[in-house]
Amino acid sequence: MVQNTLTKQQYINIRLESKRRNCDIYPPYEYIVNAKKECYPDNLHVSETNCFIPIQDLFNHTTHRIFKISGVPKVIEMQMKKFEIIYKWGCDGSNGQSQYKVKLSTSTSDSDCSFYVLFSTITATWI
């Protein structure tokens, strides 16, 4: 659906047609929407010029998603005493790059400069 840039109605039509041919291989559209919502952390604030999330919410979300990985709940059942995640982060910026002159609704925004904060999980271990 995402990779093929299907609209909601196109996806529903494809799903119904496949079901009509006794090939129920696509989940209902609502399942996809709900699964997609689970991929985003709480308190995510997005505008046309920036994105902000409190770091604790990002940690909580990442940990929650790791515990949803197959096999991890069995480790918890075996009386895990300690769970440790090591993260790394970094910054990168650029300016003077190719400018596409995107029209932004906020006139104070400068579209030719970028600053990024990158965040990644390195390892997760449990004892």
UniProtKB/TrEMBL annotation:
Domain of life of the source: Eukaryota
Protein name per the record: Uncharacterized protein LOC112692072
Organism annotation: Sipha flava
Source lineage: Eukaryota, Metazoa, Ecdysozoa, Arthropoda, Hexapoda
Encoding gene, per UniProt annotation: LOC112692072
